């Protein structure tokens, strides 16, 4: 529930090189121009002597951008003028599947899901709440508060480029939030809950999404806290919603899924490498900024692999050796793709790595869910 999700101040980690740099009093690094209710964000010029020395990311979209990439909200998107396609792009549908899968895992872990029309309908509504509504809310909100950073990293994105107006973005945020909360309340009534557990989870996840992106807390300013919050939104919250819908959410499941969220922290770090320039300029202490790309690569894969190995150990200790073995077998291909793609170049191969390795991680989630249901 990434607001749930996906899906995240405070402890400032700064590398020694950054701490030695003295910043002279200058005008604010960004300017906002509102013209005809369209928002344009641009970075102001920086003195050449003070420019941050780092490889510049690709500032322009592909010459022949992909319509599919545009709808999914990923790199290489076609520049679009259709307002509804832009609205969908802001919700980043490519981020919905982990939330949908989390609901599946929660339903499986409950042990009470049955292949009836009613149970399938309930699960679909829960997936709509977690994915398009609340993850869409989270992604749109995050893009809104990231508009200055995107003006550096990806100035052609819909908000900094002015392709969508300020009022249109804010309206979309509210519609998706209220729609998600409404579906959560409906699910509680449908499930016959005396306590609206799913509604509370939706409210909590939505609040987490807000403080992840928005000042003054802006959890994403700290690589550890922000990425863990993001991981919990993508793994724990939708799992809890699915399990609460069909069964009872127990303390041991809460602890286990929060542990799994450390793997989610690692997955979140993958997306930080492409934004190093903008994060550094805006003072965001993502792990690649704080520790350098080389160290952050190993922190990333360590969080993903060690977490899953620990969960396999838990399953073995709980008397589920076959599930533990199945989980371990799903870790091996992830390690292979980490060395083949991610550890070689986390910026160049981030999409290939995630497309190759993450299916095995989410299958491991289902294995864990099935183990806890028996």
TrEMBL record:
One Pfam family linked to the record: UbiA
Chaperone found in the keyword field: no
Location (main, coarse): plastid
Low complexity bias (residue ranges): 51-64
GO terms, biological process: chlorophyll biosynthetic process
Catalyzed chemical reaction(s): phytyl diphosphate + chlorophyllide a + H(+) = chlorophyll a + diphosphate
Keywords from the named record: Chlorophyll biosynthesis, Chloroplast, Membrane, Plastid, Transferase, Transit peptide, Transmembrane, Transmembrane helix
Record localization: Plastid, Chloroplast membrane
Stretches of the chain forming a coiled coil according to its record: none
Chloroplast is among the record's keywords: yes
Gene Ontology CC terms, in alphabetical order: chloroplast membrane
Membrane topology of this protein: Multi-pass membrane protein
CDD domains on file: PT_UbiA_chlorophyll
Molecular function GO terms recorded: chlorophyll synthetase activity
Catalytic activity, EC: 2.5.1.62
Region of interest (Disordered), residue spans: 45-64
Ranges that cross the membrane: 173-191, 197-212, 224-241, 253-274, 322-343
NCBIfam families in UniProt: ChlG, chlor_syn_BchG, PRK07566.1
Family membership noted in the UniProt record: Belongs to the UbiA prenyltransferase family. Chlorophyll synthase subfamily.
Record's protein name: Chlorophyll synthase, chloroplastic
Source organism of the structure: Actinidia chinensis var. chinensis
Upper classification of the organism: Eukaryota, Viridiplantae, Streptophyta, Embryophyta, Tracheophyta
């Amino acid at each position: 529930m990434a607001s749930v999700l996906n899906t995240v101040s405070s402890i400032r980690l700064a590398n020694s090189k950054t701490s030695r740099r003295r910043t002279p009093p200058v005008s604010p690094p960004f300017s906002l121009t509102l013209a005809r209710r369209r928002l344009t964000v641009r970075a102001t010029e920086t003195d050449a002597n003070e420019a941050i020395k780092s490889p510049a990311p690709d500032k322009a979209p592909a010459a022949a951008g992909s319509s599919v990439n545009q709808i999914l909200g990923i790199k290489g998107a076609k520049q679009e003028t259709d307002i509804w396609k832009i609205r969908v792009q802001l919700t980043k549908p490519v981020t919905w599947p982990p939330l949908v899968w989390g609901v599946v895992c929660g339903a499986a872990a409950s042990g009470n899901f049955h292949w009836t029309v009613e149970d399938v309908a309930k699960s679909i509504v829960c997936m709509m709440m977690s994915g398009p509504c609340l993850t869409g809310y989270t992604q749109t909100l995050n893009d809104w508060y990231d508009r200055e950073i995107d003006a550096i990293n990806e100035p052609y994105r819909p908000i900094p480029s002015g392709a969508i107006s300020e009022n249109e973005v804010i309206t979309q945020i509210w519609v998706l939030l209220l729609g998600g909360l409404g579906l959560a309340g409906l699910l509680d009534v449908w499930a016959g809950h005396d306590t609206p557990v799913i509604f509370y989870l939706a409210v909590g996840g939505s609040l987490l999404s807000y403080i992840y992106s928005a000042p003054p807390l802006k959890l994403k300013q700290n690589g550890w806290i922000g990425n863990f919050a993001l991981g919990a939104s993508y793994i724990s919250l939708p799992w809890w919603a699915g399990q609460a819908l069909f069964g009872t959410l127990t303390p041991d499941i809460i602890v286990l899924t929060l542990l799994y969220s450390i793997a989610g922290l690692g997955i979140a770090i993958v997306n930080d490498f492409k934004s190093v320039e903008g994060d550094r300029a805006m003072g965001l202490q993502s792990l690649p900024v704080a520790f350098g790309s080389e160290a952050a690569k190993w922190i990333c894969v360590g969080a993903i692999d060690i977490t899953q190995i620990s969960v396999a150990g838990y399953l073995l200790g709980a008397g589920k050796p076959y599930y533990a073995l199945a989980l371990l077998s799903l870790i091996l291909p992830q390690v292979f793709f980490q060395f083949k793609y991610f550890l070689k170049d986390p910026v160049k191969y981030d999409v290939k790595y995630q497309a190759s390795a993450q299916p095995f991680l989410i299958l491991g989630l289902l294995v864990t869910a099935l183990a806890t249901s028996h």
